[in-house]
Specification:
5 strands
Length: 186
């Protein structure tokens, strides 16, 4: 209680727009989503199955909306993106027979996807324009040690989703009820 009474306060009306897990891969692409759905996974049971890397088009559309809303001093709306800084390096993990976890920085992940090739430049443009504010959120957002153990032990669903370059599915969608994305501190 004492902490809250000493926190920052304002008489201004403020809207805070903040979004988690930018830069993270949860779903590789629309085609893989459809293939998983066709394989019997009930993808509509979780909104997280739609969570994918931001694309050039995503950021361009977001910046258009943010720039269309100005404050009294003509500043655009600002969006805080909580950034995940790395993703699994699927190629290296497979190359080493699932015996060791490897990661790649988000910039490497983005560079490997044509639809994301300008994302880093757009992030910079958004920051310069005071519309986009990235902040550190996590290195990666998976329990990689459990994931790697299941890969090494040949767990069918884990291997199947690995082949789509994703780290499993949300618990509601998983046929085994397993998610590697659950918070690690619970």
């Amino acid at each position: 209680w004492l902490y809250w009474t000493k926190s920052w306060r304002s008489n201004k009306k403020i809207i805070v727009i903040e979004s988690d897990d930018w830069g993270s891969i949860r779903m590789s692409n629309k085609n893989d989503y459809k293939k998983l759905s066709d394989s019997g996974y009930q993808m509509n049971k979780s909104p997280y199955t739609l969570d994918a890397l931001e694309t050039n088009d995503d950021l361009t559309a977001l910046f258009e909306v943010l720039n269309s809303v100005k404050d009294i001093e003509n500043n655009p709306a600002c969006f805080t993106a909580n950034m995940v800084m790395s993703n699994p390096n699927f190629h290296k993990i497979k190359e080493n027979n699932f015996k060791r976890y490897y990661y790649e920085e988000v910039r490497e992940t983005l560079a490997n996807k044509v639809e994301c090739d300008n994302v880093r430049n757009l992030w910079n443009k958004g920051m310069i324009s005071n519309m986009f504010y990235p902040q550190y959120h996590a290195r990666e957002h998976i329990q990689y040690w459990s994931w790697m153990n299941d890969l090494l032990n040949g767990e069918k669903e884990t291997l199947e989703t690995f082949n789509y370059n994703i780290c499993g599915l949300p618990r509601n969608v998983s046929k085994n009820g397993v998610s590697y994305y659950i918070p690690i501190y619970i």
